[in-house]
Structure formats: C-alpha cells, structure tokens
Amino acid sequence: MNFKEKVYKVVREIPRGKTKSYKEVARLAGRPGAFRVVGNILSKNYNPKIPCHRVICSDGSLGDYNRGGVKAKLHLLQNERAFL
C-alpha cells in the first residue's frame, strides 16, 4: 500500500464527530513528518467516502477544504457535532 492509500485509510477511519490533525494522520500512515504531504493528498480528494473535512491543523484551525472552502468544512463538522 502506498502512502496515499495509507492516508485515505486513516482518514476513512476517523469517526463522525471526531477530528485528527494532518500531523496525526501522517504519523498513523507511517510518515510522521509528512503532514504537508497529507494536506496535498487530501486537497486532491473528491471521493465523499473519504471524510477529509475531519482533518484539521495541529493548532486547531481548520485548514483548507477543496469542496467549498473553510465555511463548508466548518458546516460539516458542526453538523457532525465535532467539538473543535
């Protein structure tokens, strides 16, 4: 399994209403320092089965979202009752 597939697997396993940081996803996918790569991978994801809106920055900020921007990401997380 390549790194992209590992990232997608980790992100698919984030439960509804929970978040992980790009750094956590990178670590869980086996490359702890590759958090920017994780962001790059997720910026190209358009598969709704991979809930990339659940991945946020380590400082708690939302980061970007390729399907409608930060407002859309915030809306999705609020609908899931994610506590940021």
Quickly name the level 1 CATH class. Mainly Alpha
Number of strands: 2
Query: Could you give the distance between the termini?
Result: 31 Å
DSSP helix count? 4
Enumerate the spans where pLDDT stays under 50 for 5 or more consecutive residues: none
Biggest sheet, strands in spatial order? 1-2
In CATH terms, the superfamily is Winged helix-like DNA-binding domain superfamily/Winged helix DNA-binding domain
Relative strand content:
under 5%
User: Which overall shape is indicated by the principal axes computed on the Cα atoms?
Assistant: globular
Task: Explain what this protein looks like in three dimensions.
By secondary structure, this protein is mostly helical. The protein has a single domain, classed as Orthogonal Bundle (Arc Repressor Mutant, subunit A). Helices cover 44% and strands 5% of the residues. It contains four helices and two strands, in the order H-E-H-H-E-H. It has helices spanning 3-12, 22-28, 35-43, 69-79; strands at 20-21, 55-56. The protein has a two-stranded parallel sheet with strand order 1-2. Helix 2 (22-28) crosses helix 3 (35-43). The model has no long low-confidence stretch (mean pLDDT 94).
Output the keywords.
84 residues, mainly alpha, Arc Repressor Mutant, subunit A, two-stranded parallel ribbon, globular
Task: Give the secondary structure arrangement, pairings included.
Elements: H1 3-12, E1 20-21, H2 22-28, H3 35-43, E2 55-56, H4 69-79
Parallel strand pairs: 1-2
